[in-house]
Specification:
single chain, mainly alpha, Transcription Regulator spoIIAA, four-stranded parallel β-sheet, two-stranded antiparallel ribbon, 6 strands
């Protein structure tokens, strides 16, 4: 039971928490809070709420996710993935409707964790995740055009095409001062990312543009002019008016929120494991996310989940335990209590610039382009999910994407099956020697993969690498019995190769069949790649491994 449940914070406290760990976690927490401060305000506004709602979410949900979650270094709060869903729920059902949907989503996540659904994330195909993430990025960027250009539009349509028609109709009302502030904020963020990536670019851009607007008295929209009555501090917890009719109305949105929260939280936890060398408890993470969403809704906040960018910042800043995430929430709370008035000076165009950068990061354009080089089946799933996300509805996009990916996978599996007419006489299954480790060189590890390497089993390879004690210097993956490799399998192999490289190990593939080899060539991991080595069979792989242990060996082109 302990392997699946139990907050990581409790584990850390049992192991012993020292003042050295506290210093490291406090520094990391402050760093993440500086990054999260402008981001939480921007996401609150983009969601159709107000900046204080984003901050309340970051404080309450961020605290609970770190305190009760299954990851040592996960940082939670409002994220871009929710913007579209939240905006639509508020537009259709009001803010009370959003609070009810968030409460229901929290309950759904808790039940998902209790019933051990945490491992089901590996059944979401990679093209689907990339497609709807890129689609959300396009929607977020589109929603910020009005504030970035200072357009005079009374009400911006919610749908993508009517929204852009409204922008084009109002293009003559563009404000030069607003564009200058937005471009200036964007330039500061981009320049700092290239020249001084450790500095908090978002916060610096907000401070510089706010000071410029105040000193020069520029006629631009600010948080103070858009939201003149921002309450200081945290509100008292309370329940919205709940009725059966309201529950029925928002239930589909609640499932969407729960799905997005679960997917992003577990993806973020996997990324954190790869960066920090930890291992999260997926079911406990879902429970922690569920409680966090319940808490956020009780305080009038937004839906929350694990935030990949903030989690990565947390790790790079030296975080060791969940206390870092708790400290991040505490620092944000201090800002809400003592510096809320400063929010009034922040220009809306600067927040739009921040959300443009958030959208760019979410788009994962390199991964998107890599998937476009995949076979037609993966490319179709990607583009269909992307198009439906932007033009129709996120829930529809996910449902159709997963269904289509499953059907295409079954079709590919049917093509991969060969009818045996040899009565077993010519089948050499025993050549995959059961004594494969008997002649294994020292410092080399070997794994044999049986069957299709697709999205349903791809995560097992990464889990296997994490379970190794001392990292080997070379790893042989025997793939003669792998007839099929899909886009998610390719992505997992890329992650496996990168983690092995960080650990100082080389990866050798032996007996690779034509279809997997072709898939790997599409992402520049074919023969001659500097990251990967090929061998015709297991004996050749062992010989190659011995050569690789010699530092003078170089990969032949």
């Amino acid at each position: 039971m302990q392997a699946a449940f139990g907050p990581k914070l409790a584990t850390v406290l049992r192991e012993g928490y020292s003042s050295r760990l506290l210093r490291a976690d406090a520094i990391a927490g402050l760093t993440v809070a500086i990054v999260a401060l402008p981001l939480a305000m921007a996401l609150g506004i983009a969601s159709g709420a107000s900046p204080d709602k984003g901050l309340v979410t970051a404080v309450v949900a961020g605290f609970l996710i770190s305190a009760l979650g299954g990851s040592r270094v996960q940082v939670g709060g409002p994220t871009g993935a929710f913007v579209v869903v939240i905006f639509n729920v508020i537009a259709k059902h009001g803010y009370d409707g959003l609070l009810i949907a968030t409460l229901l989503a929290g309950l759904i996540l808790i039940l998902a964790g209790v019933f051990r659904f945490g491992q089901l994330i590996k059944y979401i195909p990679h093209p689907v995740v990339t497609g709807f993430t890129a689609g959300i990025a396009v929607i977020i960027a589109s929603s910020q055009v009005k504030d970035f250009l200072g357009l005079s539009i009374d009400k911006v349509p919610a749908d993508f095409i009517p929204k852009w028609e409204a922008y084009l109709d109002a293009i003559a009302t563009t404000s030069g001062a607003t564009v200058a502030v937005g471009v200036g904020a964007l330039a500061i963020i981009i320049a700092l990312r290239k020249l001084a990536p450790k500095l908090p670019g978002f916060l610096i851009a907000v401070v510089v543009t706010s000071v410029a607007v105040a000193l020069l008295k520029l006629p631009v929209d600010t948080i103070g002019s858009r939201f003149p009555e921002i309450p200081p501090g945290l509100p008292m917890p309370s329940l919205p008016e709940i009725s059966l009719a309201k529950i029925n109305a928002v239930l589909p949105s609640a499932f969407t929120i729960a799905f997005l929260a679960g997917i992003e939280a577990l993806l973020s936890a996997v990324v954190a494991d790869g960066m920090a060398g930890t291992r999260h408890r997926s079911n406990q993470e879902l429970i922690g996310q569920g409680v966090a969403n319940l808490g956020s809704a009780l305080f009038g906040g937004l839906p929350a989940t694990g935030a990949i960018a903030r989690t990565a910042t947390n790790i790079r800043s030296g975080a060791k335990t969940p206390v870092a995430g708790i400290m991040h929430a505490v620092f944000l709370l201090l800002f809400i209590l003592f510096a809320t008035d400063l929010m009034a000076y922040v220009p809306m165009a600067a927040l739009a610039a921040i959300l443009f950068m958030v959208a760019w990061g979410m788009s994962e354009y390199e991964r998107f382009l890599a998937l476009l080089r995949m076979p037609n089946s993966d490319r179709s799933v990607l583009l269909l999910t992307f198009g439906l996300t932007v033009l129709v509805d996120l829930t529809v996009a996910i449902g159709v994407g997963v269904t289509l990916a499953s059907l295409l996978f079954m079709a590919r599996m049917a093509e991969a099956v060969e009818v045996d007419t040899s009565n077993g006489k010519d089948i050499d299954l025993d050549s995959e020697d059961v004594h494969q480790r008997d002649t294994l060189p020292a410092g080399v590890e070997v794994f044999r993969i049986n069957g299709p390497f697709f999205f349903g089993v791809a995560g097992e390879l990464l889990d296997t690498l994490r379970r190794l004690g001392e990292s080997p210097r070379a790893i042989i993956l025997r793939m003669r019995l792998v007839p099929l490799l899909d886009a998610s399998g390719v992505r997992t192999l890329e992650e496996f190769i990168e983690q092995a490289r960080v650990a100082g190990a080389r990866v050798i593939l032996s007996g690779v069949q034509p279809q997997p080899r072709s898939m790997l060539e599409r992402v520049h991991l074919g023969q001659g790649s500097e990251k990967l080595f090929y061998a015709a069979d297991y004996a050749a792989a062992q010989a190659l491994a011995r050569d690789l242990l010699d530092a003078s060996y170089t990969n032949p082109a």
